[in-house]
Amino acid sequence: MSVSLVKHILCPIDFSEKSLQVIDHATRLADVFGAKISALNVVDDMAPEYASYRRSARDMQALRRTLEQDSQNRMKLHIEPRLRSFADSQALTVFGKPAEVIVKVAKERRAELIMMATRSLGLASQFILGSTTYKIVRTAPCPLMVFSKPELKFRALRILFPTDFSELSMLSLPYLYKLALDYGSDVHIVHFRQAHNAASRDPAREMDALRRNAASNRIPFNRIIVNDNIKGVTPGAAVLKYAKDNGIDLIVLSAHGMSGYKQFFLGTTAVEVSSKSECPVLIVRKMEF
């Protein structure tokens, strides 16, 4: 992947320890890609816990000033020191519903990667939860990297690439190769066979083509592991089992947005993997800009 492909990383935060740990991971990936970072704190001033402060327009204005000032103070304390060495990086406070605001800011500021925790126990409301992640997976205008355990050190020594051989799944390859080269990773390429399309492609032939493609992109041949028939009740379950059994450090997969045909990595599978995986998951989508 060309370094220029990821020039801007967006990190939603709620000042919980998990979201701050994702910022630390983002700084390391920003070094890899030569990217800037925007830390985004979404403040939902319409949350139920603020109902008693919304009795009048004046009360509402006072609430917003208080929440914004508190957010900015926390940015100065926790975020700005982490971003000091990254040119053009910034800390943003925006009011609204988290899932909607994250997607809106990513589009407006042309972020090429969103990085966030799948679960976060932050201030006021637990905004980075499965439901928010699900919405962002389905609507994000760019790739999304999620961490279920951001407290763990991130070193992508073993990367898993599940594929259904579709054109969509191949969008992940540039990201896979860039990260594998930077980390010196073993690359695991796997396929889940589905009965309804078993005759459409020859898995062994497709896997051989992917192995040769990886080797042509400077991935050492002895670091490419292939399995064209991973087992599981669903594609997501099969991917999760393989990742656990093989000590995978990062899963890289592609996902549809709200539209598109029902191929292997529809949004529900991406959500299943990203919400249950013990290792980070990079969900690649077509960028909308």
Write the topology of this structure.
Layout: E1 8-13, H1 17-33, E2 36-43, H2 57-83, E3 90-95, H3 98-108, E4 113-117, H4 130-139, E5 144-147, E6 158-162, H5 173-183, E7 186-190, H6 203-216, E8 224-227, H7 235-245, E9 250-254, H8 267-276, E10 281-284
Parallel strand pairs: 1-2, 1-4, 2-3, 4-5, 6-7, 6-9, 7-8, 9-10
Antiparallel strand pairs: 5-10
Can you describe what's shown?
It is built from eight helices and ten strands. The protein has 289 residues and is an alpha/beta fold. The chain folds into two domains: 3-147, 3-Layer(aba) Sandwich (Rossmann fold), CATH 3.40.50.620; 158-284, HUPs (Rossmann fold, 3-Layer(aba) Sandwich), CATH 3.40.50.620. A ten-stranded mixed sheet has the order 3-2-1-4-5-10-9-6-7-8, with helices on both faces. Helix 1 (17-33) crosses helix 2. The longest helix is centred in the first third of the chain and has 27 residues, at 57-83. Strand 6, helix 5 and strand 7 (186-190) form a beta-alpha-beta unit.
CATH class of the largest domain: Alpha Beta
CATH superfamily of the largest domain: HUPs
What gross morphology would you assign?
elongated
**Helical stretch tally:** 8
CATH fold descriptor of the largest domain? Rossmann fold
- In total, the number of strands is 10
Strand content: 15-25%
SSE string, helix = H, strand = E? EHEHEHEHEEHEHEHEHE
Query: Uncertain spans, ≥5 residues at pLDDT below 50?
Result: 120-129, 257-266
Into how many domains do the coordinates divide?
Answer: 2
Distance between the termini: 18 Å
User: Considering DSSP H and I runs of 4 or more, what fraction of the residues is helical?
Assistant: 25-40%
The helix-and-strand class reads alpha/beta
Largest sheet: 10 strands, mixed
